[in-house]
């Protein structure tokens, strides 16, 4: 990103970076994009929020919105990065769908649960699958 800003390809602002990332997401490495969006430094964090703010989820179910959100990138491996991304997603979802959830925290918990269930269902390395009792106990 720094090289693109220095060369004048990308505007030197979080919104400029977010617009570029959104426009070129199909051409970018999904893992690298997820890692960048998950950074906690001030500029990258602001770019991530600007990136999420370009999304519109009005009228979408939370699982469809989550799928749309996650399609361009791969969630980073670090829990704190995932947490930041999911918080931003939940806040955007609640703004676009007033009355569906009381708080962004409720949307966050459900979205995170969907990700955990999806990971459990599709992870070939999982030795034991999460059953209903295990899910409820989480």
TrEMBL record:
Alphabetical list of Gene3D superfamilies matching this protein? 1.10.220.20, Arf Nucleotide-binding Site Opener,domain 2
Localization per Swiss-Prot or TrEMBL: Cytoplasm, Cytosol
Question: Where does the UniProt entry say this protein principally localizes?
Answer: cytoplasm
Q: Which GO terms describe its molecular function?
A: guanyl-nucleotide exchange factor activity
Give GO BP annotations, semicolon-separated.
regulation of ARF protein signal transduction
User: Which PANTHER family does this chain map to?
Assistant: GUANYL-NUCLEOTIDE EXCHANGE FACTOR (PTHR10663), LD29171P (PTHR10663:SF375)
Q: What is this protein called?
A: SEC7 domain-containing protein
Origin organism is Volvox carteri f. nagariensis
């Amino acid at each position: 990103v720094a090289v693109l800003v220095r060369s004048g390809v990308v505007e030197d602002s979080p919104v400029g970076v977010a617009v570029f990332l959104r426009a070129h997401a199909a051409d970018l490495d999904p893992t690298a994009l997820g890692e960048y969006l998950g950074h906690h430094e001030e500029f990258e964090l602001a770019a991530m929020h600007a990136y999420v703010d370009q999304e519109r989820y009005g009228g979408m179910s939370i699982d469809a919105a989550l799928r749309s959100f996650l399609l361009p990138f791969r969630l980073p491996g670090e829990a704190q990065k995932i947490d930041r991304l999911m918080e931003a997603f939940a806040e955007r979802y609640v703004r676009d769908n007033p009355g569906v959830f009381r708080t962004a925290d409720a949307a966050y918990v459900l979205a995170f649960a969907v990700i955990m269930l999806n990971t459990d269902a599709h992870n070939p390395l999982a030795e034991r699958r999460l059953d209903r009792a295990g899910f409820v106990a989480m």
